[in-house]
């Protein structure tokens, strides 16, 4: 095996004489423009995603909404996300990452605005469900898009940094909600209008985003792929015939429908990997949204005033971007497997402790630390999941696995009030903690190390 070195490479890699242009590229302006778009998309995505947790207490006051109705809204939102995962993954593999991304941004921006003008609870429920559809359609495309464009040695870091930058919108919307929501009966409506400004991303993306060369290669569109790769490799002539990822087995480009994708990800080759990913995604996703999606409402019902519940939740939300920025330093270490295990162990233990706390500032302190860790493990999971499958089913497979977590979260959003009323606050958070401990054990025993490896190597 020949060792290839080049001034344009971040690392020295063994390639047998073949170049891995995308995996080995040095970061350039085209990469940074791409990351700006993705970070902005994550910002509006996360803003829309967490907005309802801040307005839900106001809806109980001004619309007379019950805790059960809030659970139904959360559940329907995650049902929308479920179908968004499937649709976004499928659409991205069929028409390309760029077009699917643009469609998703446009879709969730429109319905975010419509959330704010909904005249009745029933219509609000429909709009909220469709917002969830657009949000997760975009997320599935984005997490794979980053994995396919960024260099192998640092793609996890940049995934974390772009999401962390986007997550700055969560404490921002929390602070805005704290001021605006209690100000008038219609204060909650104005919060949703903010999410509609996501059209800014759509406009920028039209000129800045280019199609994923890996998708173009998978479709046999080699000349187009070469032109896009050349934008990321400025100092040398790109020769697509030497790109290691082009049909290494001299087979025709693959096409995979939904049934074919499911058969492949559950085949003998991927069965163990898929099982680990399903457990990981389901436990982390359900636990995350059970905790933070319900935190303001549970604190309010637990005995804290609406204002106290909102400021406590808003302070805890500052842990989101911090958690992702910190994860950027660790995500590419230990093959991604080790950080997931350590993060999950810490979250599991601390969440069990959280359920026993009653002092406001202690709740804020421990909750903040849990938020840092949960968001950290979430973004590491995104990179891990997006690296799991070959290009022709990468977003379809990622979308299906990610949707399993949203499906169970939809169920959990309805079950949370039942657990809370039947067993209490402490048991509810204990259950969340156990889910994260399960992730640590499963990943530690059967997980695969993926960080820093070429996608072509992983595919092979």
Automatic annotation (TrEMBL):
Bilayer topology term: Multi-pass membrane protein
Gene symbol of the encoding locus: ydjE_1
Superkingdom of the organism of origin: Bacteria
PANTHER family: SYNAPTIC VESICLE GLYCOPROTEIN 2
Keyword hit for Cytoplasm: no
Transmembrane feature ranges: 34-57, 69-88, 100-118, 124-146, 158-177, 189-209, 276-297, 309-328, 340-357, 363-385, 397-420, 426-446
Localization annotation: Cell membrane
Pfam family, one: Sugar_tr
Name of the featured protein: Inner membrane metabolite transport protein YdjE
Domain Major facilitator superfamily (MFS) profile: 34-451
Entry-linked InterPro entries: MFS_dom (IPR020846), MFS_sugar_transport-like (IPR005828), MFS_trans_sf (IPR036259), Sugar_transporter_CS (IPR005829)
GO cellular component, one term: plasma membrane
Keyword set, alphabetical order: Membrane, Transmembrane, Transmembrane helix, Transport
GO molecular function: transmembrane transporter activity
